[in-house]
Amino acid sequence: EVEGNGPPKYFYGADEFIELSPQEIGLGKDAARVSLRQLGDATKHTLQVLHEIYPPGADTGPDMLNHEGEEAGVVVSGIIEITVDSQVRVLNPGDGYLFESRLPHRFRNIGGGDCIIVSACTPPSF
């Protein structure tokens, strides 16, 4: 357990992130290659922080996602194509995004290497 009933936990080692299974949250079979590593226990906080890795060709599935809240992120390495509502943009390292999560959205790695993103969502969506 990452956050027990002891004193508050403020710092996390890389091995303490929680791997979320994209299949379990409804992203589909093709999304299984995507790694979503969550910082801490999002059920105990109002902010969800993820370290995301999209291998080449990986995406969040054929259906557009939508949920309550807002999300934002910064591309650390690689490139990612993000669709939000009717807008499509390719983001490179150092580029970021911020949008209302109720808008239909999708992420797809169109590059030849892994795309790494650090993102945040409030409230936690999964």
Helix content, binned percent: under 10%
Mean pLDDT: 87
Largest sheet, in brief, is: 6 strands, antiparallel
Give unreliable regions as ranges.
none
Trace the largest sheet across and list its strands: 1-2-3-9-4-7
Find the structural class using helix and strand composition: mainly beta
CA-CA gap between termini: 17 Å
The count of β-strands is 9
Annotation keywords:
126 residues; mainly beta; 6-stranded antiparallel β-sheet; 3-stranded antiparallel β-sheet; 9 strands
Describe the structure.
The chain has no helices and nine strands. The relative contact order is 0.24. With 126 residues, the chain is mostly beta strands. It has a six-stranded antiparallel sheet with strand order 1-2-3-9-4-7, with no helix packed on it. The chain has a three-stranded antiparallel sheet with strand order 6-5-8, with no helix packed on it. Helices cover 0% and strands 39% of the residues.
